[in-house]
Fold each of these.
Amino acid sequence: MKAILKSVHCMTLLFFLLTTVAFAESEYVDDWLGTWTVTLTDQSVVTWELTDTWVSDTGMSHLAYGVASPGNVEFIVLYNGMFSSYYYIERPAGTTVYDLPQDLSQLSELVPSDDFQTFTAKEGAYPIESGYKGTVAPVTEPELCVAAYLLGEDDPRLEILRQFRDKNLALSTTGKALITMYYEKSDAVIGICEKSPAANRSLKLILESLLPVINVLCNDE
């Protein structure tokens, strides 16, 4: 009886260990789950909805299943552990890696950003150009925004502006539009400041006068 109980305990422990490993391995494609806005090479736009994942017995291959709209096209994002690469192929949900073509030229390689919020695609079997997670394009900050240029990149007051951006403006559609416009125009405004010391001084004075008000708004519960 003791031998049986010992075997059961060992099997239970093994089960939990394997479950933990499988869960960790599935994180290769977990980051793909969600809604993606994808631009094709002809500049048309489709929406991807990725909802489920699958891991092969060897743990080397991982799949995320999705549906592209319009068209309700079922597809798979494949993580190939041998090459540490991601690929796109149109196949029905439930298809396993054992039923996918071994020739990777029949797929299109996707190259995700480090935070898995955007990706680009290499030329391949499908006309995919790029994509970003969500339905609102992420804001790409320039190397130097207007505030950092006027105050200096190491000025601690920049944190007040970042908090105002993230905790106030980013919560509304209008605010998001203002954030996008701010970063889009930063290079042009910096160019004006570089050409005109008077404009530089004026904008810096305006910004510094607004900072106390912005600080209050950030801390207003």
Amino acid sequence: MAAEGIVRKVFPEDSRNQYAVILKLAWPAILSQVSQTLFGLVDTLMIGKTGDVHFLAASALANNILSLPIVFLVGISYAATPKIASHYAVSDIDFCRKLLSQSILNNFFWCLCVCLLLFFLIPFGSNLDVDARVLTEAVPFFFLLIFSLPGIAVFQSFRQFYDGLGRTKPGMVASLAANGLNIVLNYLLIFGAFGFPEMGLTGAAIANIICRWVMGIGMAVFFISERKSAVWRQNFLSIGIKWQEIKLLNTMGFPISFQFLFEVGAFTCTAILAGQMGPESLSAHQVVISIASITYMAASGISTAATVRVGHYLGLNNRQMIRDSAIKSMVLTTVFMGLTALIFILFSREIPGLFIQNQDVVAASSLLFIIAGIFQISDGLQVVALGCLRGLGDVKIPTLFTFLAYWAIAIPLGYILGFNFSFGPEGIWWGLLSGLSVSAIFMLFRFFSIIKKSQIRN
């Protein structure tokens, strides 16, 4: 009875339907987000089982650096979702179809640009101040991973379209299937099981390439063959290039990409800083960031639901429901991230042991897990508030907030604490905690200020 009373207080009777709708949208998006993050986690877990700390550190370095171009491409693709949601709410089928077509073209163009830039920059990797053995292993691993990016671009084009329609399951199914395949291929190619060659890091890279292409092709096949998608396929190939829609996608997509770049770039920078403290510190950082990324992606799934619902009610010009959807998304995120915070803190020593048996790495990781636990709620609230703002089409000011939170606060403070005050990797993570907290405050204030001043009718 006590538990039931708490549930009714947090989820009052007249609000349950809205929570149910958000959860229905969110749980496939959560699984999709988590599944994509699991690509890096599976690499970390299985490479860690080789017992070579240099392999694990090389994987950490390459995946952290590659996360920057990946989030740029993902950010560009995110622009389609709120626009699709708003126009679909008023049955503007032609616009939605046209925006999908232009999103595919736009995402492919930027993917090609990113790949060419990365190939050009690879020779400069030797200038990184990282352990020589780690760098030797990381460069070819990174080179191969670049070939996985086109698969991500195709997947994101279709995924964001279906998300905007309120259909978050197709992306989930493709992500889960590809992740399962990744586990199998990693086992076969890293360790040379069942007669396959033992390829180590190269095997992990090949597995990633195959699986990300499978995700993209799978979504394309779904679009081509599914009966419900027939309305979107009408005259699809004859749409051509529509510069106005491409401009719209880039006008929204670039600020969203920079939001991701500023945040993920901050975490990548911390990986580089941790690498300068030695392979053990970098490995500890990678273990904790792998798990923290999963909880972040879960909150990001709720953020996706918030974007869709806010965008939907924006199309219907209903301010009260915009606010209601946002608040309930924030409540759900706070509950979830609060639970993960407890897990991180209570099992701070047990979780690292799942990845590696090196006791120095385990000890360093346990301290970082406590800090990661403290910033879970801030991390969740800031990403959901960002999702709500995207649903409103507000992306430029939040981008500035993101830059200030991470690059004016988190990184400088983390560097000072980590190096000048000799706190080591814990100092870097205290800086991240500060940045996430400031970001959450900024985004929440921005959203509720816009809603209060908005001319949207009730």
